[in-house]
Design goal:
- The chain is an alpha/beta fold.
- It has 6 helices and 10 strands, in the order βαββαβαβααββββαβ.
Length: 208
Amino acid sequence: MKIVVLGATGGTGLEIVRQAIDRGHSVTAFVRSPDRLASLRDQIQIRQGNLLNRSELEQVIRGHDAVLSAFGPRIPIAKAEKHLLQEFAAALAPAMSSAGVKRVLLESVAFLFKDAVIPPVYFLGKLLFPAVIADATAMEEIFRHSDLEWTLIRPPELTNSRPTGKYRVREDHLPRFGFSIPRADVAHCFLSILERGEFMRKIVGVAA
């Protein structure tokens, strides 16, 4: 498939790019800092621009089959990025509709699972990261009310551990005892869901 990866210079995004190449996909990375992808320059298309600009997003996305996004703010969140995910969604959703590309998979946060007890992610999120919960909720709402074929993937704590290939996926729930997951396994989950055409207009939890 021809895919656009957003957030491609972050930990999860880089894993998505590398694994997508290995699986034979044609990859376009739309990034703010292309130098961070210099080692992959001969294997992918790299486009530089503003991920909050609707017209730039539309130009890059047009002609592709899907968008995979691991874009998000860095922790701790700067004041200027308090509404980053909401602004991103407000640009991306209409850009995709205008470009005629429907399929989008997005990384969100497990903090939004209100019914999770072990671990109590929503409680911890409200206590420790209220701005993250508010911003991720706003982002999700934009996609959930769009005409796109979205999948929202909510992992717990992300680690840089080696991939296990044994992660668990649950629709509308965080897997029980889902405390963490390697970024490489999240990337594998993204690509597997895309290739199988699963979880259209669904929210999924993924954990080790």
